[in-house]
Amino acid sequence: MDKGQEKNDVFYLFIFRRVNVKDNKIYICEHRHIKGLFGRKLELHHFPSDVQHLSIFITSLFLDDKVILIPDPYRFSEVNREAFVDQQEWSLYEHVDTEQRYIKDFLFRIDDDDEDDGRQMKEISNKEDRKRSVLTVTCHTDLYLKEKQNE
Predict the structure, then answer these.
(1) Which structural domain range is residue 71 located in?
(2) Dihedral angle computed from the Cα positions of residues 27, 30, 75 and 135, in that order, rounded to the nearest 10 degrees
(3) How many independent structural domains does the chain possess?
């Protein structure tokens, strides 16, 4: 466990799924609360109706046959609006978007995912099968105009 993580920031669920009589599967779901301090320079592009997208990309060192990142359908992502530094100039929306997708693995990178070197070399030669799960979490902000304050 990392120094910065509290004991209750990580928890596990075990899900038993019976496909048929011969094929039973158990899934281990690890849930993490991710906390961090992120920075981005906000610039005006379409004044006065400019909206900025602030995204965090979460990925794993493991391939998608080992780890799949998905948003929790029962616990929505959120952002602490009080901790937003540019509150005087920018207004941070409460809504947070999440998107699950996959990226192809880099060809020049060799992973230590598996202990079986034969399988590892096979995966490297067949680049189509090498994917990593990515979870994107995005919030939005817009310019805080004086007119908004008076409404």
Answers:
(1) 36-150
(2) -100
(3) 1
* 8-state DSSP, 106: P
Which pLDDT does position 128 carry in this prediction? 58
In a domain, 61, yes or no: yes
Encoding tokens for residue 51?
A: 């909206």
- The closest of 83, 64, 80, 82 to 133, measured between CA atoms, is 64
Residues 137 and 98: beta-carbon distance below 8 Å? yes
Are residues 142 and 52 in contact, defined by beta-carbon separation less than 8 angstroms? yes
Instruction: Residue 54: count other Cβ atoms within 10 Å of its Cβ.
Output: 18
Asked whether residue 6 is assigned to any structural domain, the reply reads no
The dihedral formed by the CA atoms of 132, 15, 36 and 106, expressed in degrees to the nearest 10: -10
Digit-by-digit pLDDT tens for the chain (151 residues) are 455 545 558 878 887 776 667 777 788 888 887 777 777 777 777 777 778 888 889 888 889 888 889 888 888 888 877 777 766 677 888 888 999 999 887 654 455 555 555 555 444 555 556 899 999 999 888 876 645 555 5
Cα(63)–Cα(131) distance, integer angstroms: 6
